[in-house]
Amino acid sequence: MAEVLIDSIPLKDPKPFTYRIPTALQGRIEVGSAVLVPFGNRKGVGGVVTGLTEEIKTEFEPKDILEVLSEGVLPSLMKPLLEWVAAYYSAPFSGVWLAAVPKGILKKKRKKKNKSNEPLELPPVLTPDQVKVLGQIEKNSKSLFLLHGVTGSGKTEIYLRAIGENLERGKQAIVLVPEIALTPQTVSRFRARFGERIAVLHSGLSGGERAEEWHRLRSGEADIAVGARSAVFAPLERLGLIIVDEEHESSYKQDSAPRYHARTVALKRASLEGATVILGSATPSLESYEAASRGEFALIELPRRINGRPLPPVEVIDMRQELREGNRNMFSRSLKKAVEGILERGEQAILLMNQRGYSRFVLCRACGQAVRCPRCAVSLTLHKGKSEYLICHYCGTRALSPSICPSCRSPKIRHFGVGTQQLEETCQELFPSARIARLDRDTTSRKGSHAQILDGFRDGESDILIGTQMVAKGLDFPRVSLVGVLAADLALNLPDFRAAERTFQLLTQVAGRAGRSEIPGAVIVQTYSPEHFSVQRAKEHDFEGFYHEEAESRRELSYPPFGKLINVVASGTTLESTQEAAESLAASLQRRGVMALGPAPAPLSLLKGRHRFQLLIKTEELESARQVLRESLSEQSSPKNIRFAVDVEPLNLL
After folding, report:
1. d(CA 653, CA 648)
2. Which of 43, 133, 373, 616 has the fewest other C-beta atoms within 10 Å?
3. pTM surpassing 0.85?
4. What CATH number did the domain enclosing 584 receive?
């Protein structure tokens, strides 16, 4: 018998179906085989075998598999990895398979890719620091490396050289980047060195494009996979190297089931297949840096920028003082003067505002109520287009901006908080001669728009680039001499134990966009919390100092990396039944000796019309806690409207 996941038609609830393997196909079918099966009233649809079982009696007569279409979609040696992911993250195997394999891969016809005749780029001369790091990788007995290099120190060249040596040994490589948006820039850099040996895998591609790249890797036509999170499952049989660039980025963690972390999966895959892993970052995660301090990873460092360029000086502006001195503008006097200066000199600036939209919320000053989403426990964000409208950034609900309060009918409606749209509008007022571009989810929703905006900025078509955290990620513009951060403490106000770490990382990374060429750079950070240690350490470019201070508080509270977390969210259509289900699960865990914080209403207590209660398990023994949780969940007899979502090692508790 075979468990077959239907691939070529969309199903509301994807799950494996049981089929019989006929005598004629015995021995030809294995896990990963692409097969043709009858389904409903269809005579033949494509599917992938996800499991083999002994013949068992069922309530119905299983149908026969009709035909074997191709060799395994995934190399057979990857089956243990997928099984491990399913077990580790408490996810169904079929869900892991769907995350690993491009949707609709069986019904896409292969097209022969035209080979490029572009000459390959010659590698540059290495700096002494780069020579030292490559020597450490080559000679070290460890196969796991944490590359800690300041912004602009040449980490990408280390990746390129390591891949080149890997290819010379007949091996293949995976390069993970944290954002889909980064991929075109990364691909162009890698393709210049390795040509058509590169294949790209990320969800921003069409189904046909992704299936084509997948087949190129599976057939051996390409041997370097570059992509975002899911590229960790690239179908390579001779894997020798996995690179995780900007390894600290939270986008490596999938926020829907299966909730895997690509960095963790990369480490496990390398262990199973005997590959080397290089984790790279200017601001390593506490988890990775702590592992390096314990000797689990070899720590290799690039402490200086290329050509001895200095890291830019950072000026921290106390916006409380600006307000006391009568400045109510979102620009401090220092930042306004600095922008005027770069415009006069014909240079460029990047301005970071990590909140898209026009205003963060709309509030009635009579009754104090914010206009909230009817389906989620959050305020709606004001956006401006042809008209003013409110949008929920969680479920997409839209409404026209009201002229009177929906709660008390008062006309005293005001907009509060600032987003990228309002920042753009203010820049147009303050700097009327400036050419301004904006980079956020609203301006990059169309395919290719992200690359178009960045290419235009690189080519000098705009003077100021405004954006959310997207502008902090790995961008290299030689004419950028100023970076301004408005509302640097937005993340500090979130109920999240990682808030300080995320703030430090964001400030350090965006500061690294300035002064990357001959033009000296400067950074101005505006904040209402200038004394916070994450802001001060970022000002000093002091990762070590930040790490030790943050690690001390994490250790006291047994938060990662000094403890493990499992977050369980119960959701349902009624408040009472959801709370009862969460309390029942908590009681079951307690009977088995596992203590959980809660249950309590989740920070987002209502999401897409569903009430949510949260339990947080803190443990030093992840495997035993996971096993107890599985047992407790299996004994729950909750109403059909109740769902439990399990997030092992969550990055976000919101």
Report:
1. 11
2. 43
3. yes
4. 3.30.70.600
